[in-house]
Amino acid sequence: MEPIRILVIDDHQMVREGIKSSLSNAGNIEIVDEAQNGQEAIDKLKEQTVDLVLIDISMDVMDGIEATKIITKQHPEVKVLALTMHDEESNIINMLQAGALGYILKTTGMKELMEAINTVSKGETYFTKEVSGTLMKQFMKKKVETSKSENKSVEELTKREIEILKLIADEFTNQEIAEKLFISQRTVDTHRRNLIQKLNVKNTAGLVRFAFRNNITS
Fold it and tell me: What is the pLDDT of residue 155?
């Protein structure tokens, strides 16, 4: 089995040396090179064949977030695993949005670091317990905000709009809705467009999903 070829990116030489020393006995891991900032790493990736980069966030010249964006764009085959002291929600979210598959803290033990490397190298995600907790809080926060937003949207709908939304969710056509409610087909079409705009969805499928999420069905 080919070893996982790793580029270590950190602005502290002692950290880089510590990682290299700790991973030197891992039979399936090979440290091919190191870099002290994002720009140096990007330059080295033009010359090296690497499977995974182990990268810090705070670095001079180019930080880990910006470097990750460029690395994942220029080298989509290279997996990115963040190894940092920063456990703030903003840093975690920004790294994941930049393309990192894993995020672990420098307080992590060597056993878990190796597990993270093996997992991320396969294209799977890996987060330490603390990071997973932060992500779960973010998920729940968004879920609550979405729920509040949708409840507000429902309250803003008129009785007629709710009536039409129910029929749309029940797969009635504009003509069928018009006949059922004794209104013109053009009026139904206008209501449909207004609903899409009010509920901030893209199309009829979005209206149907909204209706089911909020129990607006016959």
Answer: 75
Domain region containing 203:
149-213
Nearest partner of 80 among 56, 101, 49, judged by Cα: 101
% of the chain at pLDDT higher than 90? 40
CATH of the domain at 207: 1.10.10.10
Which pTM value belongs to this model? 0.62
pLDDT digits (tens, 9 = 90+) for 149-172: 555 577 788 889 888 988 988 888
From residue 198, alpha-carbon distances to 13, 192, 203 in Å are 55, 10, 12
Residues 33 and 114 occupy one common structural domain: yes
Q: Which of 108, 133, 158 is the last residue of a domain?
A: 133
Beta bridge partners of 55: 9, 82
Q: What share of the chain is helix, strand, coil (3-state, %, to 5)?
A: 55, 15, 30
Are 10 and 100 members of one domain? yes
